[in-house]
Amino acid sequence: MNRSLLAEAETRLTAERDRLVAERWYDGGWRASRLKTLNDKLAGVHAIEERLAKPPSLAHPRPYLLLFSTEGTGRVIISVGNPDTAANVVTFVPGTFSRLGRQRSAIEKIDAIALSAAKAGSPSTAVINWADFRAPQSLVPEALHTRYADGAKADLGRFLDGLRATHEGSPSHNTVVGYSYGALVAGVTARDVGLNADDVVFVAGLGVGVEHAHALRLTGVAADDVGAHVHTVIARNDPVRGLRIFGPQSADPAFGGRAFEPRFASPDPSWKLIDSVRAHSSYFVPGSITLVNIGRIAAGLPAF
């Protein structure tokens, strides 16, 4: 069904784009803006189609398109690995700029997490890109507001509950990974709704909406044990390090979680402070300690 929606969307978006390209009229910039939006969405559609067409392998587990919509900036839920049968299930919550047009990057991240979990010893893993919310599309002012996280928390909570309800056989070990603004989404959900998960990983967040890990709720985890299931990371050369936009940074030891701190986000020693902007997007590159640790946490193992 969702694959049919994907094909229909490609046909519809392509037809509108080609029509606008063929037309020649001045509109004060609306046409150019609409063409940019159409091309962006088509890039996302093509990225999803390409991933769906890849033969299953260790590096590219079988994909499942769970939700697809072009409404607004687009909404997508795609899993690599079957979440109904996998022993370990990871829900990845993306951050600022998440939209249909950014699916190629998101898919690369969930594939990398799945491979890392397999290398850590996970017998079967499903990693889901949960892009079913309206994410901020600018650093300033949108990413400085909590309203996007507040608008997402109920849906994320229901989705995680659904993963438990539809899982077959023994209960899976479930992990939520919130990246950048996605860390706030995961944190606000854990605070106000509760995360139906065994572990949560906050990656490069600007605070997660609470002052201490014990204010977070993980279903099935005792309140006095939550800190042992809250994992955090932010690299020294990440430009958001030290910022307290949505509360204290979860990587601060006083926050009460388990922090693992790579000196630099990338394993490449040439990525120094001058490359700090790139550092924020490098946590999931092959060889990064963050990626290794997320794989271990997904497999139910402690981080290094």
Structure explained in plain terms:
- By secondary structure, the protein is of the alpha/beta class.
- The protein folds into two domains: 1-53; 59-298, Rossmann fold.
- It is 36% helix and 14% strand.
- The protein starts with a helix and ends in a 6-residue tail after the last helix.
- The protein is built from seven helices and eight strands.
- Strands 1-2-4-3-5-6-7-8 form an eight-stranded mixed β-sheet.
Task: Please give a quick description of this structure.
The protein contains 7 helices and 8 strands, in the order ααβββαβαβαβββαα. With 304 residues, it is an alpha/beta fold. β1 (63-69) and β2 (75-80) form a beta hairpin.
Structural class: alpha/beta
Q: Evaluate the radius of gyration.
A: 19 Å
Total strand segments: 8
Strand order of the largest sheet: 1-2-4-3-5-6-7-8
Q: What is the domain tally?
A: 2
**pLDDT < 50 stretches:** none
Order of helices and strands: HHEEEHEHEHEEEHH
Helical percent range? 25-40%
